[in-house]
Amino acid sequence: MTKEIIIAPSILAADFARLGEEIAAIDTAGADWIHCDVMDGHFVPNISFGADIIKAIRPLTKKIFDVHLMIAPTDAYLEAFAKAGADVITVHAEAGPHLDRSLQAIRALGKKAGVGLCPATPESAIEYVLDRVDLVLVMTVNPGFGGQSFLDSQIEKIRRIRTMIGDRPIRLEVDGGITRDNAGVVAAAGADTLVAGSAVFRGKSSADYADNITAIRAAAEAARAPKLQDNSVQSMRTKESALIR
Ligand code: DX5
Ligand code: ZN
User: Fold this and answer.
1) Distance 79 CA to ligand 1 centre (A)
2) What are phi and psi for residue 45, nearest 5 degrees?
């Protein structure tokens, strides 16, 4: 099933001194989701922000809040992020031994459950939890910092996870080093949800952000175009054969 492309700007690249204005700017600029990178200085070598910041910015937009937890352990904090207004909560497969339990806990809080994979983690890590997730996040940089370079090694993993997902209603998200130049490659490999920090918050105004979002979306959609055509040819054929019968 081909889903529309979602662009999720990461507010890690926003000007934190003007965070409220930056949220409004990406909202107006056409962001589909707001990606919130939570880092604990333990699971990843950097500290960003927590549930209180998410709670403070939640009223500023109606867009989906996509909360990426780069923290370990996770379970004790899930309720706080749910209450702060997260819509999707992603935990890392590497964050603890009880991934299945964490994913169940997220859904029990009434939220969409995501699982993230660091670059060195194989896709087999999520084989037995696929029925518990609404989103798989493939890290295309080592988590911890914005502005890093995209790791080509992850393209094959994206392809394999796309195949593993099959017809399940699961979004396949890529995160790290995504730009208008590589959005096509990841979309062609099967990603349908693109996080971008530095590549969106380049420039100053909402108009600049809109140009950046539009360019990333256009590159992703163009790379999927042949597949969509195949699907529509296929559906025309199905309709024709139905009429013939
Ligand atoms: C990295 C974060 C990413 C990152 C994206 O740990 O999960 O969301 O900030 O930023 P860019 O697009 O600048 O790599
Ligand atoms: Zn992220």
Assistant:
1) 24
2) -80, 45
